[in-house]
Design brief:
The structure is a homodimer. Chain A is built from 13 helices and 18 strands. Chain A is of the alpha+beta class. Chains A and B meet through strand 9, strand 10, helix 6, helix 9 and strand 11 of A and strand 9, strand 10, helix 6, helix 9 and strand 11 of B.
Chain lengths: 455, 455
């Protein structure tokens, strides 16, 4: 390993320059004007894979943006790891808030500022450079690798899903490695082993066939907006618990060990509250903030609308009112089952004085990697060697839909070894990535391949 | 009186033609393009007043549209009645839904179709013709009259308010007569003796300083839309009663006599429900539909908005959510006192995990005419003679702001003697007025002046 580490150390500057080249390509997936840039970026990645010695390198056209794949399968008898990343980036707006141009990587105080730096080019590229190091130094890898880099993560990975289904056999792997999550904090290498799922619903309450004058008719008919408020209010109790029958039945409780480890993490609640701008934190009684966000289900109104919402006053009883309501789910809640429970409960809460329609938007199951999985264990040891610090095991409150997809289609858990920092402005102006984390990410990736071979 | 009745009967056709002339003037107050029409209409009314022998006829310019006044004060020792009406009309849109041109009065099956026919030209014009009958036949009126016809009722009567304040002395009267309300139904002469008031509020709940990702932060902070729903829900109890402390303290209960009279009115609840398009009627427990709409206070959400309201799904915790909430008030609730109670109660309901701001929009006090007032009694007898049927005493769920203004500034109750029908499409296409009601309205007005003189 020392040879590999030396190679990485000696080539650190070149690796950064190559990353910067990648960051100069404005691969914005949601904007048709960038179609040529998307293709250029895919080609550049394919050339990079060829250059470092991967086999079967392909740029797969899709209905949207291309998917780039490559592999090295020369480690007979050794496990195979599928490495996923995405080369598409968020739009740069609002452009005027950037301190340096979004597609001209600029280094300030050890951070490279550029759109896509941390999300996700700078993260998945660590694995490119780790693989390159092995193939240059040893002409082989300790394990088999398959790379899948897509160009539509920021717009829903629609075409990747079909691609994985079709190529289920050729994508077979023992482990899936994704670097697209943040570390808990600076100097805290982190392994994310849990994600929340989602059930996203839309409820519409309909009353009279038209908006009614609230003077002439107020008091005679149920007001759909009042009814909707009552329904929403009844969905969560005074302790912050969701009232849908059976909602908590499948929730895996946090172990004492997990609660202890969460509690040991340095979350500065006062700073967190100040940053969010809320008068106080709030949530389910009996749980800490990290427990609430990482390991407890929630029910949130994402949007609500009905009646007159312009300036001033209009005295109407709205004909209808609707709300988008989503639930974050935790292992082992099932998104479909929860959606059904929601529908049944909301219908029961709804009085016969109005009619109600409930629509399901997208959903996804939560994810929990078994902490005793050899891949997770190997990743933990690798991070410790890459960062020279014991990693923390964390969860994430959001969902990464592609993780559930891999889990479901390939039947293997994902190892989420992220090298970003929580304040690196992914999806915002002045996105950046810490170059020391980029370097330690390459080291960690190299160690991971080795650890996996030995585990 | 028989002479007067004969004159009115003999001139019925001419009166209708004169009304049609007035209806041909497109006096749409909300549209600056009709400024000249407004002035033409005001001049036509002044000429009509001069022609029938009123004194001190004036067209008063205002910052908006002119106010037309005239008087006849020759009945020494007799009471004075101030007659109010408005010559402005609603816009004609959507023009394509009119079966005949809105400003070309067209008679079909005894109804004249035209914008402004029932609201309010055809109604206030009954009094013009009753006065004319007396002045032609007897060269005098049984009581003193003052006419005030404004041109801004459909846009808020802003300038009339100031006009009344300034001319408080010269507008002094014993009774105020307004014909701008509907009858309970065809063949049911109606005297409206109560209106509801209003307190219109806007509540905004603010949480985080920006929309938050509902995955990364859901569970850690209070969701302003959920909080707003809880507050709204808590404002009305399961019996449909408003929970604001003291809310009902000043409510004058319906008398047994009133409840009996309301109950005797032929409200077809099934047809009413069908027309409104609701699955069932609903309201405060223990009261009938008419009682709920006419004589019980309500609390209705007029509009609600927060977070993502577009198509599809967006997983955010909204930074804020707001609602417009108005309460209809009944005698003797006080609009300001109720608004204060609302503010205090909502603040109390709001948890410390969010901040709240409450804004007051317009309000107005309810109105209740004393049924034993000699003017009301005289109006009742007059309607019976004009329509040859006993009148019904009704209330109205809405507010007529100018009624409260007259009540407050002049200190006299309004007599609301309406000649419209509930289905005559005021504010909608194909507005119409029943010509028999127009004729009987003139007779009723003539009888009213006589009854008032004798009372």
């Amino acid at each position: 390993m020392q040879e590999i580490r030396n190679f990485i150390a000696q080539n650190r500057g070149r690796f950064e320059q190559e990353l910067f080249e990648l960051l100069r390509i404005p691969s914005v997936s949601n904007n048709p004007d960038h179609k040529a840039d998307m293709e250029q970026c895919a080609r550049a990645l394919a050339q990079g894979m060829e250059g470092m010695g991967l086999k079967k390198v392909s740029v797969h056209p899709t209905k949207g943006h291309p998917i780039v794949t490559g592999e090295w399968m020369g480690a007979e008898g050794k496990p195979t790891v599928l490495i996923y990343g995405h080369y598409d980036v968020q739009p740069e707006d609002p452009i005027e808030e950037w301190e340096s141009p979004p597609f001209e990587p600029t280094v300030r105080e050890g951070q490279v500022y550029a759109r896509g730096s941390v999300d996700d080019k700078g993260q998945f590229y660590t694995h490119f450079k780790a693989i390159e190091a092995y193939l240059r130094v040893k002409h082989s890898l300790p394990v088999n690798v398959k790379l899948v880099i897509e160009g539509e993560e920021e717009i829903g990975s629609e075409n990747l899903r079909g691609f994985i289904k079709i190529h289920r056999e050729s994508l077979k792997a023992d482990y899936i490695l994704i670097s697209d999550t943040p570390m808990f904090g600076r100097g805290m290498p982190s392994l994310c082993y849990g994600l929340r799922g989602l059930a996203y619903m839309e409820v519409e309450v309909k009353g009279p066939s038209r908006d009614l004058h609230s003077g002439s008719f107020g008091g005679a008919v149920a007001n759909p907006a009042n009814v909707l408020a009552r329904i929403i209010s009844a969905l969560v109790d005074d302790n912050g618990r969701v009232t849908i029958p059976g909602f908590y039945d499948d929730v895996i409780p946090l172990t004492d060990q997990e609660r202890k480890e969460f509690a040991s993490l340095p979350l500065d609640e006062a700073a967190y509250q100040k940053e969010l701008g809320v008068p106080s934190l709030s949530g389910e009684r009996g749980f800490t903030t990290l427990e609430r966000v990482w390991a407890r289900p929630t029910l949130d109104v994402n949007g609500i609308m009905g009646g007159f919402t312009g300036e001033g006053a209009k005295t109407i009883i709205p004909a209808s009112a609707k709300a988008k309501i989503s639930m974050r789910l935790v292992p082992n809640q099932d998104s479909d089952k929860i959606a059904e429970g929601f529908e049944a409960h909301v219908k029961k809460l709804c009085p016969p004085t109005v009619t109600i329609t409930i629509q399901r938007h997208h959903g996804g199951n939560p994810f929990l990697a078994p902490l005793d999985n050899p891949g997770i264990q190997a990743a933990g040891r690798a991070l410790e060697k890459g960062f020279e610090k014991r990693p923390v095991f964390i969860r994430e409150g959001g969902s990464i839909p592609i993780v559930a997809t891999f889990d479901e289609i390939l039947g293997k858990p994902c190892i989420l070894m992220g090298f970003g920092l929580p304040d690196e402005n992914s999806h915002a102006p002045n996105e950046k990535m810490d170059l020391d984390n980029f370097y330690r990410g390459i080291l960690s990736s190299a160690h991971f391949l080795q650890e996996l071979a030995e585990s």
